[in-house]
Write a structure and sequence with these properties.
This protein has 5 helices and 2 strands, in the order ααββααα. With 107 residues, it is mainly alpha-helical. The protein has one domain. A two-stranded antiparallel ribbon has the order 1-2. A hairpin with a 6-residue loop joins strand 1 and strand 2. 8% of the residues are buried.
Length: 107
């Protein structure tokens, strides 16, 4: 049985920021993107290239591909219940939004 979107959002918002003290906390989306490209798809100057998950496009470096790091669960869906306004406003006014937006499990 799938949980309603509102319930998932409520759980994310209510979850304590320091719920997993031994887990690395990524402070913002820009940092998360840098970690994603460094650790998930590092440049490969030699050997077998990366293949993206959707269409099998092979690439060796970030410069070879026009690919974005997207959220599995859209940022607007967890931002709107916080009541901060636009995504830029969420980023400027809500530490909780920044932590949720930067969650590497969702990218």
């Amino acid at each position: 049985m799938l949980m309603p979107v509102g319930l998932v959002v409520a759980v994310l918002i209510a979850w304590p920021v320091n719920a997993s003290a031994d887990q690395t906390i990524t402070p913002d989306y820009d940092t998360a993107r840098r970690i994603f490209w460094r650790d998930v798809y590092p440049d490969k100057p030699t050997g077998r290239p990366h293949s993206d998950l959707y269409c099998g496009f092979d690439f060796r470096t970030r410069d070879d591909v026009e690919m974005q790091v997207e959220h599995v669960y859209p940022a607007n869906w967890f931002g709107t219940p916080l009541g901060c306004g636009t995504r830029t406003q969420y980023q400027q006014t809500s530490e909780r939004f920044n932590l949720i937006e930067a969650d590497l499990h969702n990218l």
